[in-house]
Amino acid sequence: MALEDIAVTDAADVEPLTAQALRTYPLAPGHNVNVRSGPGTHFSIVRTLPAGSRVPIYCQCPGESVTGPYGTSKIWDNISNGQFVADAYVQTGSDGYVAPACS
Question: Which of 10, 50, 86, 92 is deepest in the core (most CB within 10 A)?
Fold first, then answer.
């Protein structure tokens, strides 16, 4: 089936796929990680991810500084709409940004 043969009935139901969205990153071993509604610990907890989870990173933004197993960082990872985790708890292999900046 060719790409042009695929019919989309409602474009609002289709999320864009990017290389960053398809790749997942492991959380620090042995840590349950709070998912927050914004880039800081003063934002509400949306849910908690269990140790051993992997997360996609759609975009990243600066926020509150957090110290975790992977150092101290002000980078927060957007893992879903309105859901952020501190990058200091995500094994990205980098101390910097690995995804586009959130707009």
Answer: 86
The number of beta carbons lying within 10 Å of the beta carbon of residue 60 is 24
Question: In this model, does residue 74 exceed pLDDT 60?
Answer: yes
> What fold does the segment set 17-89 form as a domain?
SH3 type barrels. (2.30.30)
Closest CA to 60 of 25, 93, 18, 102: 102
In the chain, which ranges are E strands? 24-26, 33-36, 45-49, 54-56, 59-68, 71-80, 83-86
Domains in the chain: boundaries? 17-89
Q: How confident is the model at residue 9 (pLDDT cuts 50, 70, 90)?
A: very low
Q: Identify the CA nearest to 78 among candidates 62, 64, 91.
A: 62
